[in-house]
Every structure is written in structure tokens, then in C-alpha cells.
Design goal:
13-stranded mixed beta sheet, 33% strand, alpha+beta, 2 domains, Aminopeptidase
């Protein structure tokens, strides 16, 4: 997420589906969208955040120069995106969008990119940097065998939404339906001796070079390492898998020692320190 600050700003209005092509061109400027063939991850994601979240665009001379989006996660309001065209950085657009999408809502969360403009703006918006998110990529053959006694099973999004509600008290039914609908989406549960101990989603990636573990929630009373391995093994389908792994997760060191590569990183930020358990939620970085 890239955000400027300064004096000049554009007119802010709610986003519509008709804005998606220009929003995608802004994302492409920052390397967050690109060519796709039969698999499109970004387009459906943007339609979802416009439909269910609070998405605003900044417009100048009938052209979009920035956009921001927040989603209610049950843990707070999560900033999913904040991007401004590169030639308009420093014009105050990012701060205006941030104020608009958060309004007066608390608690707040986001994932800040390595862009040096990101973290200061989010700190001024009331959030503190708490830990690094590691985007790790590797093959299923590298995974340790701690999950050998666990199995996985396909499930529908309604079942997974019900599990999250039972385990956390949070109803994210609309988001679960979206995660299940993504390209080559694979909703599943992880079982330990027949008991469900985790629920997650796999999907294709837009660049087509690997699959992604899109999200995994582990039952609060179960240890988190073996379910994470079982989920990664399932989603990889014998090939390469990418996961957003919180830095404090107990599997981080072991995956790196096993040969998983660090492809990217960002920083989880929040207005309160204990909104989520980084050992038992492998988040969807845009939606938490």
C-alpha cells in the first residue's frame, strides 16, 4: 500500500464498478496488477470490496488519481488498499482517502508496505506496527512431516463461515462466499482424528506460477503448526505454494530452514495490540 501526504488533493467520491479499469491501472503502476489470461484475481477482488466495503476514489479532471478501501472484519475496520498514481504522490490525496475510508471507526488495522511513506501515515492515523508479515513460497516437498496424522476435506463456504463464527464470534459469511468463489478456489477443513481443527482456502494466482493459501484459521485450542503444514500441502497440489505468514508464527523459522523463500514482506499495524492471534490466523493480506 502506497500513500502520500502534502497539500494538494482531489475530489473524493464513492467508487463504482465502472471505476475498476482505472483503479486497476493505478494498481498496475505500483506492480499490484498485471497481465492475466484465464485467471483474474484482482478484478473479482475489487468488485467485492466495492460491493461490501467502503471504497472511495479521488478524481481530478474526470480521471482517477487514487483510491482506498476498508472492510469490516469483526475485529475492526481493515484498510485493504490505499494507492495514488505515482505522478500525484505528495499531493495530500492519500491522507484524504485514508480519513474518508476510516472516518471515525475504531479499532483499525492494515498491512503497510515497505514504501517509506506508508508507516508514518498509518501511525498518525492511530495504528502501531506490531509484526512483519512474511510472504513465503516453496514446494510441498520441502514441508516437514508434522502433519502426517492430519487430513483435509473439502467443505463449502457456509460451513467455514459457521466455524469462524463458532470459534471467534465473528460472522464473515459474505467474505467466505467470496474466498470460495475465486479462481480455482478450494475451501477445505483440516481434521485431527476426525475433529475439525482448521478451516482455509486455496486458490490460483494471477501470474499462474504457483497456488496460494489464501487464508487459514486454526481452532483456538489447537496447536497451530501441524494444521498450517497440512493446509500448505493440500493447496500446493504437489507444486509451489505461497502463504502470508505472520512473523510470530511458530512455523516461520522452520519453513525458512526447510527452504521456503521470502518473496515479499509487509507490516501488520493496528490501533490495539491483541485484535488477532498471529499463530492461528494466516490472513488474506487484503482482507485479514
Amino acid at each position: 500500500m502506497t500513500e502520500p501526504h502534502g497539500d494538494r488533493s482531489g475530489a473524493i467520491r464513492p467508487a463504482t464498478f465502472a471505476d475498476i479499469p482505472e483503479i486497476r491501472s493505478i494498481l498496475a503502476e505500483h506492480g499490484n496488477d498485471g497481465p492475466h489470461t484465464s485467471v483474474d484475481i484482482v478484478g473479482p477482488y475489487l468488485r467485492h470490496v466495492i460491493a461490501v466495503g467502503r471504497t472511495l476514489v479521488a478524481e481530478e479532471d474526470a480521471h482517477l488519481v487514487g483510491f482506498g478501501a476498508t472492510l469490516e472484519t469483526g475485529r475492526g475496520l481493515h484498510l485493504a488498499d490505499l494507492f495514488v498514481r505515482r505522478n500525484r504522490l505528495g499531493g495530500g490525496i492519500g491522507r484524504q482517502l485514508l480519513d474518508g475510508v476510516y472516518a471515525d471507526r475504531w479499532p483499525r488495522t492494515t498491512f503497510a508496505s515497505d514504501d517509506p511513506r506508508a508507516m508514518p501515515l498509518y501511525i498518525r492515523a492511530g495504528m502501531a506496527p506490531l509484526w512483519t508479515c512474511l510472504y513465503l513460497e516453496g514446494t510441498a516437498t520441502l514441508l516437514p512431516g508434522d502433519d502426517r496424522n492430519l487430513t483435509t476435506q473439502s467443505a463449502d463456504s457456509g460451513r467455514l463461515a459457521a466455524l469462524e463464527l463458532d470459534w471467534t464470534g465473528i460472522d464473515r459469511s459474505e467474505d467466505h462466499a467470496f474466498w470460495a468463489s475465486q479462481a480455482d478456489g478450494d475451501p477445505f477443513v483440516v481434521l485431527d482424528n476426525g475433529d475439525i481443527v482448521a478451516a482455509g482456502y486455496g486458490r490460483a494466482r494471477q501470474n499462474g506460477t504457483a497456488r496460494a493459501l489464501d487464508r487459514l484459521l486454526v481452532r483456538p485450542d489447537h496447536e497451530p503448526i501441524a494444521p498450517a503444514y497440512a493446509a500448505l500441502r493440500r493447496v500446493a497440489r504437489g507444486g509451489i505454494v505461497l502463504v502470508c505468514l505472520p512473523g510470530p508464527h511458530p512455523a516461520a523459522r522452520r519453513l525458512l530452514e526447510a527452504g521456503f523463500r521470502l518473496e515479499a514482506r509487509d507490516t501488520y499495524m493496528a490501533s490495539e495490540p491483541d485484535l488477532l492471534d498471529p499463530a492461528r490466523l494466516l490472513p488474506n493480506p487484503g482482507m485479514l
